[in-house]
Specification:
There is one protein chain. Strands 3-2-1-4-5 form a 5-stranded antiparallel sheet, with no helix packed on it. β2 and β3 form a beta hairpin. The chain contains 10 helices and 5 strands, in the order αβββββααααααααα. The chain is elongated. The chain is α+β, with helices and mostly antiparallel strands and about 375 residues long.
Length: about 375
């Protein structure tokens, strides 16, 4: 049954994605990159010195290792600006990503195209760590780990192939975030925990909390007058698509960021209440609810801390920057206020998830028991 559910969800994503993706691809400029390897590096010095700081340009010979011009070599300039955020200092044998541009639609000759080094190729490191993660997940979790991996893949596919096209299609980012979050919750819960009352309760608690988190995120943006521009990426997106709602995208990011923790708390409370019910089926809905709340109080202490630390870690440059700025001015910065309110939105939603899931779990589990007793 789990395999059938996973297949149906993936089929749905694929079917919906095709028309959405076709539209989305036309909305933002798209250029295919190719891979290459640096064969030779020469230097153009601003001054005749061996000091690398005086280098203004690298003259690079690259060998293209993918695409139409695979195996061909091209000489290109790599400008050095002195800004480490944008500068790529190349050495021989470096694997790089290349941008191939031409005025013609289908150039046949390598001399008719311009080749630029866009960045160092880092995808191999991603492949390595992905392999290590999958090995640990399946090696330790066995079948549970495999189903967890499948749910992760479904969630990633939902974000990139459903959420992104929907937003570019000018659908409300909050609505799009809720849609993919609910689908991800259903897929993850059923794949990992199976089809039973505790899973139904966990799904219900998570969905109710997601709706609450959406309202909370919108209120935070309105009350704090957040612009939605949280970094350079937001500015670049606005330059390409000024019609998109930046505040809506910010609210959607708050919802999606809290989703994993919400599912974790919901299934933990629901499973605990179910185990307590199995141990003592005579307990009432209120007694099961109280037990769930006791467990929830133990969970929220560490989980809230986890969410705050995740946001704090991602905003560490801002934290360090705050040491040289007036504290009042620092906390009033749009990006700082946005990060803080995102962290609190996730944490408050996490707290709300505890009673919502506890009451739904207690009621559904007892209701299922009564139905079974009537059937008998």
């Amino acid at each position: 049954m789990k395999k059938i559910i996973a297949f149906l969800i993936l089929f749905f994503i694929t079917a919906v994605n095709m028309p959405l993706r076709a539209f989305a691809d036309a909305q933002l400029p798209y250029s295919k990159t190719e891979s290459g390897i640096v064969q030779k590096v020469e230097y153009d010095y601003a001054e005749k010195t061996e000091n690398p700081e005086s280098i203004s340009k690298q003259i690079v010979t690259v060998k293209i290792t993918s695409g139409k011009f695979k195996g061909k070599e091209k000489i290109t300039d790599n400008m050095l600006t002195g800004n480490p955020a944008y500068e790529v200092f190349l050495k021989e044998k470096d694997k790089v990503s290349l941008v191939v541009e031409s005025d013609k639609l289908n150039p046949e000759n390598i001399d008719e195209v311009d080749v630029y080094v866009s960045d160092i190729k880092r995808v191999n490191a991603i492949y390595l760590y992905t392999f290590i993660f999958v090995a640990f997940l399946i090696g330790i979790g066995r079948m549970k780990g495999f189903y967890s991996l499948l749910s992760i893949i479904i969630t990633i596919v939902l974000v990139f192939f459903i959420f992104v096209p929907l937003v570019l299609f000018n659908i409300s980012p909050i609505l799009a975030a809720l849609i993919i979050s609910i689908i991800s919750t259903v897929a993850t819960m059923y794949l990992v925990a199976g089809f039973n009352s505790k899973t139904n309760a966990a799904i219900t608690g998570t969905v109710l909390t997601l709706i609450f988190a959406s309202i909370l995120a919108l209120l935070a943006i309105k009350i704090a007058h957040l612009s939605g521009f949280m970094g350079e990426e937001s500015l670049f997106l606005y330059m390409q698509r000024p019609d998109l709602s930046q505040t809506g995208i910010l609210a959607a990011s708050m919802i999606i960021a809290a989703l994993g923790a919400l599912m974790d708390v919901a299934i933990s409370i629901s499973s605990t209440i179910n185990e307590i019910h199995i141990t003592d089926p005579k307990l009432s809905v209120y007694e099961l609810f109280k037990s769930g709340m006791n467990v929830g109080r133990d969970i929220i202490g560490t989980m809230s801390n986890t969410l705050i630390l995740v946001y704090l870690g991602s905003a560490m440059p801002l934290v360090l920057l705050g040491s040289n700025i007036d504290i009042v001015k620092f906390f009033n910065l749009n990006q700082v206020a946005g990060e803080i309110l995102s962290a609190f939105t996730g944490s408050i939603s996490l707290l709300a998830c505890v009673p919502l899931t506890a009451i739904m779990s207690a009621w559904l589990i007892k209701h299922t028991q009564k139905l079974k007793e009537k059937e008998e």
